[in-house]
Each structure stands twice: as C-alpha cells, then as structure tokens.
Amino acid sequence: MTTAGTPLAPAEPIDNAAVKPVSRTYRIFVRDLVLPWEIGIYDHEHDAPQRVRINIDLMVREATNFDADRYRQVVCYAEVVEGVRSLAAQGHINLVETLASRIADLCLADDRIEHVTVRAEKLDAIVDVASVGIEIERNRPGLQG
User: Could you report the per-residue pLDDT of 78-94, keeping only the tens digit for each?
Assistant: First the structure.
C-alpha cells in the first residue's frame, strides 16, 4: 500500500538481457593554451607566427573496471597539449578552421574520446579586437549527437 492507502501496482520483472550497460564518461579540458602559430591567408600573416589561443573539451569513455587513479586508464592532458604543440611546429596553415579541425582529428585518434570541442582564436588578427576564431564540435564516427 502507498501512504495514501491505494495499492501499489506489482513490479514488472526486469529483462536483464535487454538492459544496455550505461556508458560512463568524464571530461578532460585544456584551457587557454597560447602558442605561436604560422597561420593566415594574408601576405603579412606569412611574415611571422601569430599568437593563437586553444581551448579543448574532451568527453572520454571510461574503461571497464575504471580506476581513475590508474594513469594508463585515463586520457593524459599533457599528451594532448604536446600533440597540439607538434601540430604548431608542422608549418604554415591558411585557416583557423583548418587548425581546429586538425586538433579535433588529433584528439579523436584516441579511441576512448567520444566527443571533442575545439576553440581556436587568433589573438592579434584585428586591431581593437581581443580575438577572432572558431569553435567546432566533432563526434567519434558512428556516435549520435
């Protein structure tokens, strides 16, 4: 009986075979990474690197029997930063859209990462403007969302 005096409906049996395991995720982020980057389509942008600020958010699938204190089970943010630094060293690119896309591809190369958001901002592109840039989101191929 409920507290109101009406009988409770009998519980329906749960078919455990039909219950899908819940995918657990955690978020890794890199905030305000500023790097010199050879970027831009204009002639003056080929003369010297520009300051670019990068922000990355990663949704990461937990491993089975996840233990957050086991280093090899988690995505290492230091490795993400080092990967971005390596991209910056690869030479000139024309568009900030290309930069963000390459960073997203780098992140999604790790099978544990399900979703990535990348914000890339040129800090010195336009006088009197703090930054211009792009934010993109990418999902692992085959994931909805």
Answer: 999 999 999 999 999 99
pLDDT of residue 63: 76
Q: In angstroms, what CA-CA distances link 76 with 64, 72, 113, 120?
A: 18, 8, 11, 20
What's residue 90's pLDDT? 96
DSSP states of 59-100: EEEPPTT--TT-GGGS--HHHHHHHHHHHHTT--BS-HHHHH
Q: Which domains are delineated in the chain? A: 25-139 (3.30.1130.10)
Q: For residues 61 and 57, give the distance between their C-alpha atoms in angstroms, rounded to a whole number.
A: 13
List the structure tokens of 122: 């040129």
To the nearest whole percent, how much of the chain has pLDDT over 90?
68
| Dihedral, CA of residue 81, residue 122, residue 46 and residue 37, to nearest 10 | -10
* Confidence (pLDDT) at 62: 83
Measure the CA–CA gap between 32 and 56, rounded to whole angstroms: 9
Q: What single-letter DSSP state applies at residue 129?
A: -
